[in-house]
Amino acid sequence: MRRLAGVAIGLSIAASAAAQEAPVRTAPEIIVRPPPTEAERHKQLREFTRTVIRPPRINQPVAKFAFPVCVTVLGLTSEDAETIAERIRENAEALGVTADRKPDCVPTIRVAFMAPAAGSPASWLTAVSPQLAHLTPAQRGRVLAETGPVRAWNRVAVRDALGRAFRPQLGDQQRFPTYAEIQPLSTSDPIVTTEITGAAVLISREAAHGFTLGQIADYATLRALLGTGPVEGDAPAPTILTLFADPNPPAGLTDYDKALVRELYDASFNAKPRRVYNDIARAAAAAERSDGRGNKAP
């Protein structure tokens, strides 16, 4: 009996020691973060807009089309090409840009689907490609540095504050034939306007497989109607610009996308970029608060 009692006591001591040595399991810490305030969300969307829109040159406003756009789509069957072209026209009309529907209009938006025979996107264009000859070296570099299955760019014309072509002034045309003395309309706005006179969007036909024609058209709409680059990383707002990078992309233009185009085209042609960014962020935040229709097309 004494031996059994000793064994029992020993086992009890060992069990007690093991219980003390065993790690204590605690529930994982849960951090509850409140939603951003209205001011915080506005700032977040404004900074995102600054990265989405390709930065204009110093003292220039954000470029946009001044006249109805004429759309042509190449590289697909005639039926699919017309479906995409019509969707882009409908988007332009719904977002305040308007479209030229005359069959003989001169195309100002060209969307081309590149066949596998064209090679990889990196081989479509080079620094000496005539399609990019009108761009500044910095603009050309941004187009060539783009990754993924798309290349897009805009042709931009710089005009005076009233949208007129620059003309030399008397007294200066002898010394500076291209100089023009332009007075600003106000102290807060740039003294020039920038007009998109043409846009091109090249898309790999293979990469477009699996998406709807509507998604492709909506993506091309944003890349053509304003100078944008691809969205990389996590976007703070749903946008069709993530179409080729997001495993679950939006089904069409989002509330943010609509605010992006509407507010730009509603602003004056010589509005400062920061004013445009603020207006886009304000409209996008208001749309989120009202109904949150982030994934519905117009």
The H-and-E topology, N to C, reads as HHEEHEHEEHHH
> Mind summarizing the main beta sheet?
5 strands, mixed
Number of helices: 7
Q: Whole-Å distance between the termini?
A: 88 Å
Strand-residue proportion: 5-15%
- Please tell me how large the radius of gyration is: 28 Å
Quick structural summary:
With 298 residues, the chain is α/β, with parallel strands linked by helices. The chain is 35% helix and 12% strand. It has seven helices and five strands.
Q: What features would you describe in this structure?
A:
This protein is of the alpha/beta class. It has one domain (35-290). The protein is built from 7 helices and 5 strands; from the N terminus they run ααββαβαββααα. Strands 1, 2, 3, 4 and 5 form a 5-stranded mixed beta sheet that branches. α3 (78-94) links the parallel β2 (71-74) and β3 (109-114). α2 (38-52) packs across α7, α3 (78-94) crosses α5 and α6 runs antiparallel to α7 (273-290). The longest helix is centred in the N-terminal third of the chain and has 20 residues, at 2-21. It is globular and about 70 Å long.
